[in-house]
Fold Sigma-70 family RNA polymerase sigma factor.
Amino acid sequence: MTGRATQEGRSAPAGLHALMDRYLDGDARAFAALHAALAPRLTAFLVHLVRDTAAAEDLVQATWLKAHLARARFHVQGASPDGAVQAWYFTIARNLAVDHLRAGVRDRRRRDLGDDGGERDRLAEIPSDLPTAEDLEIGEAEAQEITSRVRDALAQLPAGQREIVELHKFQGLSMAEIAARLRIREGAVRVRAHRAYKALARWLTPTLRALLLLLARGGGA
């Protein structure tokens, strides 16, 4: 888990491994400090790979979720414990970026919009000397438990808000497409979506909120 993924974020901040140890022991404050140290680096790394700031921000959240679910598999490799922690997160981010770009290529092909060379070039830029997504696979039981908690939170939303979240996140429709399907103004869709996501932000931890993205990408929808 060394190499270009780590280099993209420069040398690892000091103290990451100590924070990781505390986080693995259940220290929420250590997780917050770990997040503060690595989130900006992950965001810059993913923006560079996918060339889309909004998508990169979603992928950062998905990275934290994936890492949290797979945290029992973390172990130090190489001479730098701090570097191993940074490489762990960058590896997961890289794999999610690959999945995201491949999905974009497939969409382009399905819609027959012409040449997909740009997407292929972006995939070629991503370092390949890292573990695959399968190497970081999470436990099915744990994933199902967390998915159930997210579904329970969605069930608490008013029907109109829940429908918009499901169409937006799970079916990938734009706000304009949702408005057309529901035969309401796009502004009304955005208001409902804002209220729904604000409610979910109150009910769910950042890790569980990130699962909405993975569910939308087929990770348990």
User: Anything to note?
Assistant: The radius of gyration is 18 Å.
